[in-house]
Specification:
The protein has 151 residues and is mainly alpha-helical. Helix content is 81%, strand content 0%.
Length: 151
């Protein structure tokens, strides 16, 4: 894909994610086009239907959140800072990204109907989430031991 076409496609996805986050996933595609600075024909050239745009948004948001998780986990694994700071950062990021409102729009009723790409992405996000929880549990265990020894 040419750089300018990729830029337009990404702008459409980012605009759709923003609009879906604030207005739900039934926003008119004309509004998505306006927000992205492209024509509605360009939206349809990239996404033949609403479902394909929603799927692209889910992939885009999933990729962004997975990258965030991986950066936070790497930092958490190599840090002596309080786990509370990491939990707060994790929760704040979920809210800031709008995942709390976007997930219901992007996830089908039947998870078995997810595309293989989204299934793989969901599995990655789940593994990252489990690792984050493990790190928090390890820290609670360490600090709990320290507290008992110093008391």
């Amino acid at each position: 894909m040419r750089a300018d076409a990729l830029h337009r496609r990404t702008a459409i996805i980012a605009a759709a994610c923003q609009l879906f986050r604030t207005h739900g996933d039934d926003v008119a595609l004309e509004k998505v086009a306006t927000q992205a600075g492209v024509s509605v024909a360009t939206v349809y050239r990239n996404f033949p239907n609403r479902a394909s745009l929603i799927r692209a948004c889910a992939e885009y948001m999933g990729d962004a959140f997975a990258k965030f998780q991986q950066r936070l986990i790497a930092d958490f694994e190599n840090s002596t800072h309080s786990g509370e700071d990491y939990v707060r950062t994790y929760a704040t990021h979920i809210l800031t990204m709008g995942l709390d409102t976007l997930i219901p729009a992007f996830v089908p009723q039947d998870l078995d109907s997810l595309s293989p790409e989204l299934t793989a992405q969901r599995d990655l996000l789940e593994r990252n989430g489990r690792r984050f929880i493990e790190l928090g549990q390890e820290q609670v265990s360490i600090w709990g031991s320290w507290y008992r020894e110093s008391a």
